[in-house]
Amino acid sequence: MDKEDVYQEYADFIFRYLVTLTNDAQSAEELTQETFYQAIKSIGHFRENGKASFSTWLCSIAKNVWLKEVNRERKKHRLVESLSSEHTPVYNLEEQYIQNEDKVHFFQQAQQLSEKKRELLYLRLLGNLSFKDIGSILGETENWARVTFYRAKQQIRKGDQ
Hints:
elongated, single chain, Rna Polymerase Sigma Factor, Chain: A, mainly alpha, Arc Repressor Mutant, subunit A
């Protein structure tokens, strides 16, 4: 089966799959083209692995192409928002100093926590991860992550008094 046959056989299937993800025929058409481009580039991996069906393999490529586009659009949107922001930041040296002092104080308090609580706190506040993801990373449950995060915050607050 050559490249043209593969495209003819699977293009409509992949297009319909991408339409369900994007809800936009034009985007789905562009992503279908990118999917087949990526598939042609990595066809050797499919042949080496050979565990999944060809259509499943194409769907996984299509999903990855779509997720990459979603992330690209999200970053672009954030950049446009930050550039078009009505208010420009006013740099007040005193406010900046106070903010930095607050950060230093927070990290000093965090150092007093156990290593696991500290890691949980950093993953949640700096990594912006969900409790489910944090639980998975730390080998615990989502509920454990929630409760432990709450207790860590309380411990830091008690240290402020």
